[in-house]
Amino acid sequence: MSFRITGLPAQPFAHLFGLSDAELARHGAIRLPTREGDAHPDRIELTDARPGESVLLVNHEHQPADTPYRSRHAVFVREHAGTPFDAVDEVPGMLSRRLLSLRAFDAAGMMVDADIADGTALEPLIERLLARPDTAYIHAHFARRGCYAALIRRA
């Protein structure tokens, strides 16, 4: 079964790009420089920030459904990130290098299934979760820190 993985749109974060640290703090965000060895996964382009780039650490509501599963968490967005990742049957490197938790939701925003997988073995789990007729979409999360990573849907 074909699947489509997408990153977050840049627009909801664009007003933060270029703000001073004090202005970011008023929005509950902070800027972090990326150094060699850091793992700052950008949720827009679904790439790891490179050394010398800055990322913004923001609180983002990734599950807005009015259910007990409504959720927000800290995410990194690369400052001045552009076009969101959007590909069919392709797992971006940022996901394939990490242990992930996949959470399947129905159309009402209720979780119907969940499991973990190494990013290199993600496709069979995606296919299994999307084979459920009640799965409307899947949220990928980084298993160790619990942060939202990407949206997965049927292609």
| Tally of distinct domains | 1
Helix content estimate: 10-25%
Distance between the termini: 8 Å
- In total, the number of strands is 9
The radius of gyration is 16 Å
Oligomer, anyone? single chain
Flag low-confidence runs. none
Strand content: 35-45%
Given helix and strand content, the structural type is alpha+beta
Order of strands across the widest beta sheet? Answer: 5-1-9-8-6-7
Query: What characterizes the major β-sheet?
Result: 6 strands, antiparallel
Descriptive account of the structure:
The structure is a single chain. The chain is of the alpha+beta class and 155 residues long. It has one domain (3-154). The chain has helices spanning 11-14, 21-26, 93-96, 122-131, and strands at 3-6, 30-33, 54-63, 71-78, 86-88, 99-105, 111-118, 137-142, 148-154. The chain starts with a strand and ends with a strand.
Short description:
This protein is of the alpha+beta class and 155 residues long. It has 4 helices and 9 strands. The mean pLDDT is 96.
